[in-house]
Amino acid sequence: MDLRNTILKTMAAMAIAASAAFSQGPYIITGTVANGFTVSGGSESIATEEGTAVNQTAFDTFINEIRADANGNAVTLTFGENGETLDLGTLIANFNNTSETWGKITLEGKITAANNTNTNDANGFGIVDIRGNVSVESSADIANTGTGPNVRPIHFNSSGTLDVVGGTISGNAAVAVYNRNTTGTINIKGGTMLSNTSGGSTVFNQSTGTINISGGLIQNNSYDGAAVRNQNAGGKLHISGGTIRANNNAAVSFNSNLNASGEFTLSGNAVLFAQRANTIGVGAGNVIQLASGQSFSDIGSNVVVIAWDNSQGIVYVPGSSEALVIESETGSAEWAVQDGENGIAYENGDNSGFIAIAGLVLNQSIREVDITGKTIAVAQAEIQEVIGLATGSDNKIVTVTGEITGANANNLTIDIPADVTVKWGA
Fold this sequence. Notes:
This protein is mainly beta. It has helices at 2-22, 56-70, 376-390; strands spanning 23-32, 36-40, 46-47, 74-79, 86-87, 93-95, 105-113, 126-132, 136-138, 141-144, 152-158, 161-164, 168-170, 177-179, 185-188, 192-195, 201-205, 210-213, 217-220, 226-230, 236-239, 243-246, 252-254, 263-266, 271-274, 278-282, 286-290, 304-308, 324-326, 332-338, 341-348, 351-356, 368-370, 397-401, 421-424.
């Protein structure tokens, strides 16, 4: 019996050791640029020189020591602890397989940097810069707080795979997620990617690599930046979900100088929205901006593509679809209010939802008339005026609330066109 117990204990210990060997960490990185960085969770004591400001060379050495300690196993790296943000100043976290090899890296926590001027490819182009054949899964918050366009929160130049499954990746004036590799694959499954880059994009496919989008939010808030851009004729872009939106440019853009667009598929419950006049077409003015000579019509039955022609300067009414175009024979889009926010409610098959638009003003009273305490003459005039506004518009429903008191209360007379509905409320 003792021998049996000894064998079982030994086997359990071996199983635990084997499990640990295949997954290291989490390595929790804390500290400051001014006083140094340390790591907890590894088998070795890893730190930069205490009390000494950290330069890029020292920080590269620090990251590579974590790689050595992980010894090729899958590893989890957490930026900051207890919800605090790790501030790299102008440093870059470089992950590559030079000299030694990373296992799969999982990124968690929060990290920020404010590098405005870096243009040196040798030092990296991203706050998180991934190279070689390194593969990464990220749910981390990664933010570039600088005002320059040259350092992206994630710069991916690896033949491996990047899976974005959560977190907020904010590029400020730079691209949030940049795919530079010819064979690398980026899978965007969740999270939020934001950018204010003017003339650029939030997610950028520079070469012949692949970007698959199945979830999350990708948004460009600048005046003239796209949300997703495919730059190379050999690039591959597959969208099967998520919400992709741009303020005043295309939601999805292809290089206008190309005669071919590479692979492009649009399916599932994807939602694309932009302030453009049209949904799909070549050149500017389209939610999906195709390349010269490119045609595309194979859109999944549940996909929602909405264009908002904001050039008319109209104050929109909830329930109407004025200035909205949806690329669907069966879908619908209309102005709406949900949870106190103004925006667009959409539906196409089982794909339905709401797009909140910051700063949008909706006139929620233009089709409502309250006649409480008013004379018959005033009530008739006000109701008739609103009926006139409804005629010829998308919103042909007028709601009348309240009641007239007095001897002639039953003598209210109004002219209601056949295409307008008047509802009498309490």
